[in-house]
Amino acid sequence: MKIVAVVPAYNEESRIEATIHDAASFVDAIVVVDDCSRDATSTRAHAAGAYVLRHVINRGQGAALQTGMDFAVQNLGADIVVHFDADGQMQGSEIPMMVEPIVHGEVEVTLGSRFLGTAKNIPFARKMMLKAAIVFTFITSGLWLTDTHNGFRALSKKAVQAIRLQQDRMAHASEILELIRKKHLRYREIPVTIRYTDDTLKKGQSSSAAFSLASNIVKDKFLK
């Protein structure tokens, strides 16, 4: 099976090359979607050997993933697409265990879980926010998971074609889970390692942004 990693990136010139080199040994191709960075992300990603797509305006991570998934399946013939972050928090060596259940036809989607695996240097406040998201996701989607906003995922071609993201920004994480339920896609959580640093925490989602996101999801789902 052809495995393609899709890496959404925004102003990641200092980390994108290391991310690509980390994942390259475990996939057949890497697609970096530069979401209108103001730095040299595209140049460095191309130099590192990735296919590079660039949004002419900043649309958000959800839109970047959709652009990358479309290209991976339609242009590269991907059988499995792996979502892999650009910031170095994930480990390329864990890609094989993410794709294995899909290769063997056991599921269509695998979802990384830092709480089944390891969350290195995770701040207490971030941990509590992520734990609250577990309950929120169960209420809104009916899926009980141990980690609902982990960007490390793998999807079969069937799942990629079934999951069409409409949420351009961070709400896509909840949207993916909702579509897994609606489309009756088989899924499994996989223990993974997420490594936090001061730099990656600065780029992470704030508590206020998470509250705003949750409010919008509730409005869209229950108040229409």
3D architecture notes:
This protein starts with a strand and ends with a helix. Strands 3-2-1-4-6-5-7 form a seven-stranded mixed beta sheet, sandwiched between helices. Helix 5 (124-141) runs parallel beside helix 9 (207-222). It is globular, with a radius of gyration of 16 Å. Residues 206-219 have low confidence and may be disordered. The longest helix is centred in the middle third of the chain and has 18 residues, at 124-141. The protein has helices at 16-24, 41-47, 61-74, 95-103, 124-141, 157-162, 172-182, 198-203, 207-222; strands at residues 3-9, 29-34, 51-54, 80-83, 109-120, 153-156, 187-195. With 224 residues, the chain is α/β, with parallel strands linked by helices.
Number of helices: 9
Q: Catalogue the unreliable spans.
A: 206-219
What is the string of helix and strand elements? EHEHEHEHEHEHHEHH
3D shape = globular
**What distance lies between the first and last C-alpha atoms, to the nearest angstrom?**
42 Å
Strand order, sheet with most strands: 3-2-1-4-6-5-7
How much helicity do the residues have? Answer: 40-55%
**What is the percentage of strand-forming residues?**
15-25%
The secondary-structure class comes to alpha/beta
* Main beta-sheet strand count, sense and barrel state: 7 strands, mixed
Task: State the assembly state of the protein chains.
Answer: single chain
